[in-house]
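Late entry, written up from scratch paper. The run itself happened at the end of the previous shift, but nothing got recorded in the book at the time, so transcribing now.
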Amino acid sequence: MRYALMALILFTAAPAFAQSGHHNHGASVDTQAGHDAVTAAFQAAAGKMHRDMDIPLTGDADVDFARGMIPHHQGAIDMARIQIAHGKDPAMRKLAEEIIAAQEREIAFLQSWLAKQAR
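Output as recorded:
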């Protein structure tokens, strides 16, 4: 959960920073195109995550939590994959790999738990 929160914080800050006007000082056209591609990838992942989290609520806190956390965790996985594809820092890559592994385990648990509730 800690990794998901960190990823969410990093992810939500990226578009604001990119739009601040400070993201391209001294950048070449090729570098700017790379920045734009990364920003677009993060924005697409965030949009998908937020759409997928917009679930009909049941009033059952356990079920609603599980159903909402699956797309939330998938969003963290998608952001981590963007970092792996475009990032350069080895520590961030390692964190992204750890996030993917942890979030995939949690998604599997949540899906299993939900399946048991439906019986």
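Residues 1-27 have pLDDT under 50 and may be disordered.
(Scratch paper discarded after transcription.)
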